[in-house]
C-alpha cells in the first residue's frame, strides 16, 4: 500500500499574535459580554450575560461559517429588545463576536472583563 502524496504542513516555531485592536461591546446599542455555558445545536447556545441572566444565543449569519464557538468562550451578545421577557423562559440574543485566546488574555490583563463572567463563578 503506497503512501498518499500531498502537501505536508511545515510547522515551525509559532509566535503569539500581537494584539493591535480588541473589539469592545457597544453599550449604546445594547451589546454586552457573555460566556457560552451550553450548546443546543442548530446554531443555538446558552449564554450567561454580564447582566446576570441566561439567554438563548443565536450565532449571527456573518460569523456562522467562519468561527467555531465552544463552551466557555467569551462572546459579545446583543439581546433582543423586541421580545417580551418572562420568568418561565429564557430571553434570546444574537452572538455577534467571539474573542480569541490572545484577546481574552489582553482583556484580563487590563481588567475589562466583568467579574461575574469568571468561568468559575457562573451559576448554573
Explained architecture:
The protein is mainly β and 124 residues long. Helix content is 10%, strand content 29%. It has a single domain (27-117), classed as Nucleic acid-binding proteins (OB fold (Dihydrolipoamide Acetyltransferase, E2P), Beta Barrel), CATH 2.40.50.140.
What's the helix and strand layout?
Elements: E1 32-41, E2 44-49, E3 54-59, H1 61-64, E4 74-79, E5 91-98, H2 101-109
Parallel strand pairs: 3-5
Antiparallel strand pairs: 1-2, 1-4, 2-3, 4-5
Note the main attributes of this structure.
124 residues; mainly beta; OB fold (Dihydrolipoamide Acetyltransferase, E2P); five-stranded mixed barrel; 10% helix; globular
The percent range for strand residues is 25-35%
Tell me the major beta sheet. Answer: 5 strands, mixed, barrel
Topology order in helix (H) and strand (E) letters = EEEHEEH
Q: In the residues, how many domains can be counted?
A: 1
